[in-house]
Each structure stands twice: as C-alpha cells, then as structure tokens.
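Just curious. Protein, please.
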Amino acid sequence: MARAFASTMIDAPVEAVWACVRDFNGLPDWNPGIVKSEIEDGLAADVVGCVRAFTLGDGTFVRERLLSLDDSRYSFTYNFVTPAFPVENYVAGMELIPETSTGRTYVQWWASFDEKPEDAGRFTEIVSRDVFAAGLAALAKKIAGAGAPDGAERWQGRRPAKVFTSSTITAPVDRVWAKMRDFAGMGGWHEDITRMHMLEGARSDKVSGVRDFLFGDGALWEQLTYLSDTERAFRYRILKSPMPWLNYHAGARLYPVTDRDHTFAVWTADWTASPQDDLELIPNVHGNVFQKAFDTLEAQLGGGAA
C-alpha cells in the first residue's frame, strides 16, 4: 500500500479555509489544475456518496466519490470512481486543524493506494508533489488573509478537549519527536519542571511507566498510557497531583509540515473539576504548561521563521 502526503500552514482561520475546501464541487475555484467540475445526478456537493466529475488541464477526466464529510472536525474523504492514475484502492482525504498560537490553519492532504510492482514509488511522488503540494500552495495563495465567515462556530460546540493547544515549531518533525518522546525528559524543555525521573527505574518509553516530578512546588505522578512512533504521539494520565481535578488525561501529537520541514504540534487535556476551578485550571494548563513547552522547544530547536 503506497501513501502520498503533503501539508502546509495557511495564513487564515480554520473556518475560512474550511468554507473553501468543504465544497466538493469547488476545486476549480482554488486549484488551477482543475478546468471544470460538476456533481452528477443533480446532488448537492455535501451529500455523502455524491460523485464529482472534473477535467484536468491536460484533458484527463476524473470522477471521485465523497465518502465522509465532517463539519465539526474539518475533514473529508473520497475515492476514485474513474481514476486519474493507473492505481487501485485509492482513498484520499483532507484534514484541517486550527493553530491556537497564531490563528493560522494546518492542512494535511493524504492518499493511500496500490501501485503495480513496476510503478512502485512513481505515483506516490507524483500525487504528493504535483497534486497535493501544488494544490495546497494554490489554496494557501487563494485564501491567505481571509476572515472567518459570519456566524461561523469553531468545533460547532464540540470542542475536542477541555484544553486544546497547537503551535508550530520550526524544526523537522523527527527532531522534535526525538525530544518529546522521552517521557522522563520534559524537565529539559519546561523550566517549571524539576527532579523528573521514572519510578522504579522504568524506561521512559515503557507504557505503564510512571514519572515523578515537581511542577513548581507541587509533586505529581503521571503514567504513560500510549506511545506511538508511527503517529508521533503519546498520552498519559495523572495519578497524583495537588490540583483540584479528577480523571486527568492528556496527550500530544506531532504532524509534519512538508512544504517547509517544520512541525505542527497539538496537545490536549481533559479532566473533571468544578466550573469555578476550571476558570483557573484551563488557562493555566493551556498557557503555562502546553504553550510554554512548545515555546521552549521552539527556542531550543527552531531554525527559521514559522
């Protein structure tokens, strides 16, 4: 199974970018490689199962079926009905994620498919570079500086977590991940964390291992519950804390920004606490824990303008 992928940061809020790309019949509006497009059978462009028929600049005729559309999480998927390339089992999708530190939008475009043995790697590069990367560059140019549509509601009232923090680190994703995946290493990239170590001599990549540390004057135990080098992600839960919360679970994930070799980082957390306590807890975790950690990583690893 081959995989094509491209991603970028767009200088516009997620609501503005989504208003442009959610139109399954709107490719000619922002992608110069598409000459014309129509939805078959008179269906609306947001009917899951509808088929768009469009023509490329070189005359190639393509048909694609909408498989899913998610207004609350800014994503859609589709597949080939009439392929643009001689591949099989082609499924593609686009996802948008807001960047809380700047108001920009991270956009990733991907596809998985089967190539013939003699074509191994050929269409991965073509789709990644000539379709996805070129299309995202055109989209970024088209939508840069646009504002959110009137009345647009982020997450449609379904925020993915109590705290959602995202930021760009101007360093390659594997370099950032090498630092963040060390579950006992956060003291090296957050100045308020001291004396961090794994209990009982556990390895820092042992799922179920517990790290013991001080955050300021408060003592905490956190247990690693998930670690994935494939997704570049980890999750953990708090076992001991001086804070007035219960059932604290949190996690971070890194995404590559392929057009500039940077990293888009997302960190989220959920817990149970009183509404009054959350007035202090939510902004404190967002700004003084997650965003501060990202800012420190940027200062240590970053190598250019985001």
User: Anything to note?
Assistant: The chain is about 25% helix and 40% strand. The chain has a mean pLDDT of 96.
